[in-house]
Design brief:
Elements lengths: L1 E4 L3 H12 L4 E5 L16 E2 L1 H4 L6 H6 L2 H6 L9 E4 L5 H10 L4 E4 H7 L9 E5 L3 E2 L2 H14 L3 E4 L9 E2 L11 E11 L8 E4 L6 E7 L2 E9 L9 H14 L7 E12 L6 E5 L2 E5 L5 H16 L7 H4 L4
Parallel strand pairs: 1-2, 1-9, 2-8, 4-11, 9-16
Antiparallel strand pairs: 3-7, 4-6, 5-6, 10-13, 10-14, 11-12, 12-13, 15-16
Helix pairs in contact: 1-7, 1-9
Length: about 325
Amino acid sequence: MITIAGAGLAGLACAYELAQRGAAATVYERGDAPGAGSVARFAGGMLAPWCERENAEEEVITLGSRAFDWWAKVTPVHRRGTLVVAPARDRAELTRFARRTSGHQHVDGTQIAELEPALAGRFAQGLFFEQEAHLDPRRALRDLSAKVQAMGVEIRYGTPAPARVTLDCTGMAAPLPGLRPVRGEMAVLYCPEVEISRTLRLLHPRMPLYLVPRGDGYFMIGGTMIESSSDRPISLRSLSELLSAAFALHPAFAEASVAETGAGLRPAFPDNLPRLTERDGTLCLNGLYRHGFLLAPAMAQAAARRLLQETSDEDHRERRTA
């Protein structure tokens, strides 16, 4: 029996891969529902390996490219691509972003309007990453929890893990050297007047921002790379910046209702890549940081192979990350 501490994104993904291989597993989770205590509930849910290459290593593309089909077996995946735009004054940021990424095409104002009619006349240039996608993180966690339980995995919600487990997936609670918190902040807006069907990234010199449609008039807007260990609620300045960014995308967001705000500490290692490490006889999967939904499938597959002592032609590609 394989025991797993944590029924967040990493723990559930590993349970799924183990169940796929016929292994018996039990997952222990302090929270009382899927993702209740997981910082993944504040994630954007963007499956965007080519965009993430802007400030991440090549592994993000090579390992993340398998996430689309993996998640599509579990939860709805919206394959609408990512549209990256910038105000005229920040056009240099668009040039820099294009230079550091791949898998995109340059689009002009007319093409932007064809992709997202709500943005007609608002941006003269942009980048379209056609192959990218997004999902709803909270639904994905619920669906993944239901999936693994249907496959025979026992999840003990409201139950702390025993002192010794086979696999530790407890995020910031894990006592791992080098693990640091990176703050993530977000807001959910309700604005049925605006129709946007794909992830939008608004480039800004200080902090890139993104907006992800959640359906039925709801949108999640968040910021990346906030280096802070504070677990306080979202600050007034950050919330103001998020709302200003939404207004920059479309003026109708000025009348949007703020349905929710949130902040969480995401686990990251110095190189910002996830790792599989062994500590006192326990295998630990941690450091998913901002690439959580993108890299969780590949890392879970690597963890399952390691626990079951399997080998794969891909292991050498994952060794550096894992």
